[in-house]
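Hi W.,

Here's what went into the run:
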Amino acid sequence: MIVIRRLCRSRLLVVGVLLSVLPLAFAIAAPLIAPHPPNEQTLSDRFLPPLSSGARGYHLLGTDALGRDLLSRIIYGAQISMLVGVTVVIIGGLLGTGVGIVAGYWGGAIDALLMRIVDVFLAFPFLLIALVLMAMLGSGLSKVIIVLGLTSWVPYARVARAQVLGVKEREFVEASRAIGAGRGRIIARHIVPNVMSSVIVIASFRVAAAILSEATLSFLGVGVPPGTPSWGGILSEGRPYMLVSWGPTVFAGVMIMLTALSCNLIGDGVRDLLDPRWRK
Amino acid sequence: MRRLIVVSFLILLGICSFSVLGSAGTSDQEFVVAITVLGDHFDPHRPPGNAAYPLMAVFDGLTRLNTDGELCPSLAQSWEAVDETTWRFHLRNDVSFHNGEQFTAEVVKQNIARMLDPKEPRASYFFSSIVSYGVVDDYTIDVVTVRPDPLMPYKVSGLFVGPASMVGNPKSDQFNAHPVGTGPFEFVEWIKGERIVLRANKTYFRGAPAFSRVVFREIPDASSQIAELLVGGVDIIEQVRSEFIAKIEASGVAHIAVAPGAQNQVVGLRPDIAPFSDKRVRQAVNYALDIESIISAILGGYAHHQATPIHPSDFGFNPDVLPYPYDPAKARELLAEAGYKDGLKVDFAISSGVGGSSYAEVAQAIAFQLGEVGIQASIVSMDFATLRQRLYTDKSISPMYCWNWKTWFNDPDIVMFGLYYSDTYSNMIDDPTLDAMILDARFCMDAEKRSALYKELQALIREEAYYVPLYYLENIYAVSNRISWTPRVDERIYVYDAVPAGGVGK
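Here's what came out:
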């Protein structure tokens, strides 16, 4: 009860969680709640406006340029966005935290080398690296995840390293070392748990960034292949026809915005929650 | 909250494209053409590509094609076949370049030499049959071809002529810095990625042009192009999607001009690798596609279904060769016969540079219809340079790919060579019967025999189904009401053709 009450005291967190209900429900239950198959085309029913009926039934949000049900595509699009958001954060988080702990704990030349690599990554705009990598690897969902994972580890590395530098000189770490604990044990039992809270906060922010990056890449035509229902793809496919049919662009844009907003609010909430000053 | 700004940016992108991007409003004497991507060169002898319209305004060929594609005199006043393999061109003696240099047969000779330079990227595909050329007198030149070439007078409409002082340099630098030609417009400035500005050549030998300035503006986004047209920032836009026709017509400031295009859209089926090495599978794909529905729904009816890439208006068109009918049952049957009873999977390469503005939707409709007969086509989109490289050089393109080839001079020769002849860069087809017939037709001076050959060829390529011939588009232009302009059959915008609507100028 105390935990729940404390959670509820963070209004940001509550709003964020409420906002995430819709996209999460879409992602988990897509096949159950989508009224139509997302790729079923009816060429005679192109650009139906929201709240209209076509040859294959009712279309709550209307249809797109190929007569596909927009609501179903947006529901299935949530799967791609969530999948990308979560896997990218896992890949980036593991990689970045690992690099940060190694750099922070070992220090010296290894630290200098790893941090220069971090500087190099920071020096290039993320989108530039991602576009180059996508051009080399080719498009596709798995490649989007790999590319975004490999380009998103830097913030974790910097934060983890800073935490490790602080923690490794603390008394309890020195005490462990004094009683003969090995390096592996110290890292696993003392360093990692103390680094995790910061990493989790970063991760919650990065979920939104990953979803937006997938949308950006798909929007630019190098993300998931045409036809795959992804929010970025729906947005970019709808854009040339905005004068004729506003539905695809607006609804996909709203979903991206909602999801990014909820991730950011949850991130803010979690940070407040883990902040010792806030607990008092 | 920076993420939010990015999100809002994405959402607003479309809306922003409608905003007015600071248009000064054109004067009565200025003509502004919107171009999606400006060309990357101004060299008269390189393949024109996106640079075609500015090149045509600054340079002249020996001959020219009028709006209907008919052959007309230009720098050459007349021409004749001296013997089977020699064409003689009689040149005008009253032409000078924008920089004052005189136009003579010697200059033409140097231009042909530069065009045929094998070490540089040249538009030489038209001129590969030339074996020698020589000056007869100051204003007469002979061109000798390896075998009879009935199309040579048409082909030299693409031989743009630059001045003697510049053609000596094989590289493009000088032309890119300040192109000099004989054409109706002189070069003023080229701001890369933004605009090309030209001014009227008042002493042009066919009469001073109607506009004192021509501007080619690069506007990549289709919605922005329409918005600019409606506020008077540009005078002509091309490749308008059929969905916007009503809106433009209703605006009162611009009208729609439509003309059949020359670009033949096809889906390539690689006959050299599985699964399309089996003719039955290639035919199955043809039967599986309902092109008529795609044309009427996605393209608003602004395209014509083709049986082969030969147009009805082309020399030697065979009206008895009809497109494959839409017959999914037959397609499944053929697939089963070929051993693909449980269907098959194939990659389908597409590029935004091929197939017109709605091709992404067309490709998805194709993939969906193929799925209905058991062919799972995964669309792989790539940029045009990658597609071309995989097709031309690496031969690593997926078994199914989008492609197109333009019909030239209302004649099947170029498109037959481009799409079907074994020894050209883009083909994986190796069909000796086809090759022999294409070559025979190319060098046949007897029109009747040549026409019969092409008729036979069309029946053959329909049966072999190396491609799915899709359609040729009706090109849709939107033109400001201030302008009077007729679309050309070669799909190009020749700015000299345009006049102010009231007939002012010229």
